């Protein structure tokens, strides 16, 4: 990089920490942007240095979504807050069947946060965006006083374009439709929990954090008549199914034995008194499609690297009470309810 | 999961269900109380009731420590955190239990009280070591199962000379609660034909303390594990006892429970705790010799002595049937508040808070079977 004459002393990206002046709008902020952010984020529109990005929208309907990321810890097995901030918003855009195009990124940083960690996060965010083929075209940085934030919060806003003829929405589920999931459930939440200091258990489980839009693209190429798509993040699979049932005014009947759950995840949840069906995912989706398309959709999902372990887990049914019911592996049946509060551990 | 899935096997469940259906005599019914919230949870989560013939009924017992804790103790805990500004460490289940004036520990925390959710007593010690200038109080709760870890924490604090740790002790004892329920059973109360006895508690206290149940009350006991197949096998064992006219304590949970229990843990408990003269139980009233407090030698670690607070006596929420539900006299759907307004998001009574409470289990897993369950907040 050519030395910028405005900043005779380079930022100390090894030992330096954030100061309030890095968010003040002055020269220190310009230096942070120049020497840290723009080193990794180099989209043409961003480098123009305007307070907004100007672009010609492509033909088709646009979708837009925003997502705040406040994860703790910031670095976890399988990802970090930077890659997560890209995947989270890309997926929200993709769940309309859209091809994501542009991202806006807002950083809220805490005074005293190590610049080296920030650089790692920005680099990871940039890498995830590049891998997903979305351009980070505008951004914002604020620094709050020490103790008023938790290191790094990142908000991302995404814009994408939906191909003609695709209408995917949470209110489209119809009785007799089939319900599919794209793979193992609960990995992300367990990977995060394993890193919390007061839990003290070790696991090889990695977060499933991933951008799902290419999987979605191959799904809608095979089954354009897809009814619903949603990524089961906070609240897990159970809560997502309840949202869809409520939005579509239907019930659901699912089979516990068909839900892919790794035995390590099941064991960790057993130990902590959690239910994997309520644990967050960051690289999985739930799809609902007409019954006659289910086998083809499943095959298309399994042909994609992010859907290899996809499974048909149940059916949409008529139910004025919009219950999601589950046939248990034990042979009984029960309600799968919305998540209540936080998932709290049992005490005995 | 090895060693867990075996106890949730569908084929075995079907076979046990067939055996129970064959054994249960159609001319009578079987009213069996599962003592523990862990059993209630398993029955609903796995749909065990659904696999029973209609004349085999489970009556839910009081074995959920959160559910039997009277409101005044939560009030006291909130006062500890707010008036004495201590760091209060508690297990997660207690955070949302309603206290007086629609308060909870969670709300007190949101308003600035230093209340931390922990997973183990060791976490409380860690917090105390890291902040010697803070007074750290551990909100100890539970039956015999969770008592030894509290004892270990107290002994560790003493050994390390941690001056900033104390314990708000709410540990309760199983046998007095069981005796109270059986003593009040009868024409006005609940009719019980048999008891599915505690599993984890019994690993500690052993099976011997239950001998009094058949001897004094003429009711058989089967100590039952918490997995769904455990519950089903124990049910079959109880029905067989009743059909053959036997009345004794049997142990289904042999893989963990012995006659004598865990002597080392018992010795620890005896060293650190003493029995209180009496203690208030939600739903059961004030029971003599039914709870523990710190032994005299450890009284300096007793938060109730170190930080005295005055909490008003418990007033139950009007219309809340938790007291009757805890005694097995009523079922959750008998309560006028069930589902509206009382739900796990907005619990009025303690049975709706803990996932092991009978109301929460009914609501979360089984309400689709209830004809008037459409009182749904999503309606």
TrEMBL record, chain A:
Domain spans labelled PurM-like N-terminal: 49-162
Family: Belongs to the HypE family.
Residue ranges occupied by any PurM-like C-terminal domain in the UniProt entry: 174-325
PANTHER family: CARBAMOYL DEHYDRATASE HYPE, HYDROGENASE ISOENZYMES FORMATION PROTEIN HYPE
Family annotation (NCBIfam families): hypE (TIGR02124)
Record-given protein name: Hydrogenase expression/formation protein HypE
GO biological process: protein maturation
Pfam families xref list: AIRS (PF00586), AIRS_C (PF02769)
TrEMBL record, chain B:
GO MF annotations in UniProt: 4 iron, 4 sulfur cluster binding; carbon monoxide binding; iron ion binding
Record keyword Secreted present: no
Keywords for this protein: Iron, Metal-binding
A Pfam family of this chain: HypD
Gene3D superfamilies, alphabetized: 6.10.20.100, HypD, alpha/beta domain 1
Region forming the signal peptide: none
GO BP field: protein maturation
Family statement drawn from the similarity comment of this UniProt entry: Belongs to the HypD family.
Listed name of the protein: Hydrogenase maturation factor
Originating organism: Thiocapsa imhoffii
Lineage start: Bacteria, Pseudomonadati, Pseudomonadota, Gammaproteobacteria, Chromatiales
């Amino acid at each position: 990089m050519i030395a910028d004459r405005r900043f005779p002393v380079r930022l100390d990206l090894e030992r330096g920490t954030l100061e309030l002046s890095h968010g003040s709008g002055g020269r220190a902020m310009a230096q942070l942007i120049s020497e840290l952010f723009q080193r990794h984020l180099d989209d043409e529109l961003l480098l123009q240095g305007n307070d907004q990005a100007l672009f010609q929208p492509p033909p088709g309907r646009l979708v837009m979504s925003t997502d705040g990321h406040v994860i703790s810890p910031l670095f976890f097995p399988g990802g970090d807050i930077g890659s997560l901030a890209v995947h989270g918003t890309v997926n929200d855009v993709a769940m309309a069947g859209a091809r994501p195009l542009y991202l806006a990124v807002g950083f809220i940083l805490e005074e005293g946060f190590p610049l080296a960690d920030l650089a790692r996060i920005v680099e990871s965010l940039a890498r995830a965006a590049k891998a997903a083929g979305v351009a980070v075209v505008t951004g914002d940085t604020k620094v709050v006083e020490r103790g008023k934030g938790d290191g790094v919060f990142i908000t991302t806003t995404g814009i994408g374009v939906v191909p003609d003829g695709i209408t995917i929405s949470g209110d489209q589920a119809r009785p007799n439709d089939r319900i599919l999931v794209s793979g193992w459930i609960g990995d992300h939440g367990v990977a995060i929990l394993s890193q919390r200091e007061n839990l003290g258990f070790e696991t090889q489980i990695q977060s499933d954090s991933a951008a799902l839009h290419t999987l979605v693209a191959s799904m809608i190429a095979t089954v354009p008549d897809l009814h619903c798509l949603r990524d089961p993040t906070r609240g897990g699979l159970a809560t997502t199914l309840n949202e869809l049932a409520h939005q579509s005014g239907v019930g659901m009947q699912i089979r516990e034995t068909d839900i892919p759950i790794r035995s390590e995840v099941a064991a960790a949840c057993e130990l902590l008194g959690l239910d994997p069906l309520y644990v967050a995912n960051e690289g999985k989706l739930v799809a609902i499609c007409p019954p006659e398309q289910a086998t083809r959709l499943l095959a298309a999902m399994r042909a994609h690297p992010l859907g290899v372990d996809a499974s048909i887990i149940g059916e949409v049914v008529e139910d004025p009470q919009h219950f999601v019911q589950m046939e248990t592996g034990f042979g009984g049946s029960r309600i799968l309810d919305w998540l209540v509060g936080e998932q709290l551990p049992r005490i005995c | 999961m090895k060693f867990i899935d075996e106890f949730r096997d569908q084929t075995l469940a079907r076979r046990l269900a067939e055996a129970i259906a064959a054994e249960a005599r159609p001319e009578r019914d079987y009213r069996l109380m599962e003592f523990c919230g862990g059993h209630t949870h398993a029955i609903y989560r796995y749909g065990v009731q659904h696999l029973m013939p209609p004349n085999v009924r489970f009556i839910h017992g009081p074995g959920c420590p959160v559910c039997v804790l009277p409101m005044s103790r939560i009030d006291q805990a909130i006062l500890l955190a707010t008036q004495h500004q201590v760091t209060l460490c508690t297990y997660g289940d207690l955070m949302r239990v309603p206290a007086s004036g629609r308060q909870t520990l969670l709300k007190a925390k949101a308003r600035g009280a230093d209340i931390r959710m922990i997973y183990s007593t060791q976490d409380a010690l860690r917090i105390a070591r890291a902040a010697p200038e803070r007074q750290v109080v551990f909100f100890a709760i539970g039956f015999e199962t969770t008592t030894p870890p509290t004892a270990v924490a107290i002994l560790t604090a003493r050994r390390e000379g941690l001056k900033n740790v104390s314990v708000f002790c709410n540990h309760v004892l199983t046998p007095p609660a069981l005796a109270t329920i059986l003593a009040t059973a009868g024409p006005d109360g609940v009719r019980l034909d048999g008891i599915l006895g505690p599993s984890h508690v019994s690993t500690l206290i052993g099976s011997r303390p239950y001998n009094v149940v058949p001897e004094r009350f003429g009711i058989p006991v089967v100590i039952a594990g918490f997995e769904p197949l455990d519950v089903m096998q124990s049910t079959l064992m109880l029905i067989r006892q009743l059909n053959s006219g036997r009345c004794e304590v049997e142990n289904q949970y042999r893989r963990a429970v012995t006659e004598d229990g865990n002597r080392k843990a018992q010795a620890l408990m005896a060293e650190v705790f003493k029995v209180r003269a009496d203690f208030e139980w939600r739903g059961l009233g004030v029971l003599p010799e039914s709870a523990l407090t710190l032994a005299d030698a450890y009284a300096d670690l007793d938060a109730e002595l170190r930080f005295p607070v005055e909490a008003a006596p418990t007033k139950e929420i009007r219309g809340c049937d938790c007291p009757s539900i805890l005694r097995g006299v009523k079922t959750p759907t008998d309560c006028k508040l069930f589902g509206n307004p009382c739900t796990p998001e907005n619990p009025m009574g303690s049975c709706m808070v803990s996932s092991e409470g009978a109301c929460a289990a009914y609501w979360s897993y089984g309400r689709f079977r209830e004809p008037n369950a459409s009182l749904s907040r999503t309606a």
